[in-house]
Amino acid sequence: MSSSPSARHPSEGDRDAVQTQLEEGPARALAYAARIRTFLLASSRYVAYTSDIGEAIRPIVTPAVVKAAYAVSWL
Length: 75
Prior knowledge:
Layout: H1 5-8, H2 12-24, H3 26-56, H4 63-73
Helix pairs in contact: 2-3, 3-4
């Protein structure tokens, strides 16, 4: 049950290849996709919050202010 030292410890070239693959391969795109997904989910929360604010202040402000709150929620 002996194994060669190179089988247990990757060479410097192997580590560089793995590093390059992580930096330039599909894993990088997946990381960006995860961040975009997080941004979209968070921004949808703010859209809902802005329209709720418009409805909450409806009794005390002019209709133009309520419409402005809805306009902000659609930006």
